[in-house]
Design goal:
Order of helices and strands: HEEHHHHHHEEEEEHE
Number of helices: 8
Strand content: 5-15%
Number of strands: 8
Distance between the termini: 50 Å
Structural class: alpha+beta
Radius of gyration: 31 Å
Length: about 325
Amino acid sequence: MTSTGGRRTARRIATGFGVVAAGGLIVPSGVAYAEPTQEEVEAKLDELQEQADGIVQDYNEAKQDYEAAKEKADDLKDEVGDEKERYEKLRDEVAHFASAAYQGTDLDSPANVISVDNPEDLMAQSADVGYLSENQKEKLDDFSDSAERLFRLKDEADAALEEAKDKKEEIEEKKEKVEDKIAEQEDLLAEFPSADPASGGDDTAGASYTGPASGDARAALDFAFAQVGKPYVYGATGPDGYDCSGLVMRAWGAAGVSLPRTTYAQAEVGHRVTRDQLQPGDIVFFYGSLGHDGLYVGNGQMVHAPRTGKNVEVVSMSGYWDSQFQFGVRP
């Protein structure tokens, strides 16, 4: 029998969703809510899990974009600093030879209308610097081209960094919304413990792989099994927690194989295999969006970092996960 507290929890969740799960209709204010059934909870959790996995991979991509843009901006800042030294040195040289030209000519000399406060202004008046030597002109041309290139790239890098920041913040906001929804679903799962499609895994802290894999695949699985029991953490690549692609990347990294960060990119490496071709160590991908992955263990099982609130685990691929399976990749 469901407790009064359970009914309150179910009602709160149903109110939060604002729908009757079976019909998908908006429920008017004041209408009594039926408690969600276990089947409705399972369906909603499946939907949220797929949504969350996709968003965290988008978040990982945005984070990479942000870090790359920031690194580029930092590098350009250093280059601009170096160029500033060249600029100041050239400015002194320009001031010197412009002053010399002025002292050796009459007041109508072109040197009198040249501003040495800004070498770019000097270049803009190129028609009036015919008296300069070829070497001096070459220095001015070189400076102008270099300065223009550096400041243009700096503007581009600043724009890219700002765009990456905006994207990262947007993804973080979406991630928080999904986590809130999952937290609500977990309240319901407390009433229906068997409703979790990923339940039944081995959550014992640390485990040992005893299967038939060898070589790099064995090293990857040994690493992944040693992480069993560590928490799932969005955006994490260890050592204290992992998301799904973070675990896969580190596991194969332990075997000396470099993999990209996201499930999307990991799906593009190596050799693709079908469900019946899977071998221990293969990366298995799920959902049409390819938002989730893990490592095939053998005997219809995989080791993976499932989602928020759960730990790295070994779980059967039968049922739910088989229904979401897309393909395998052999690095």
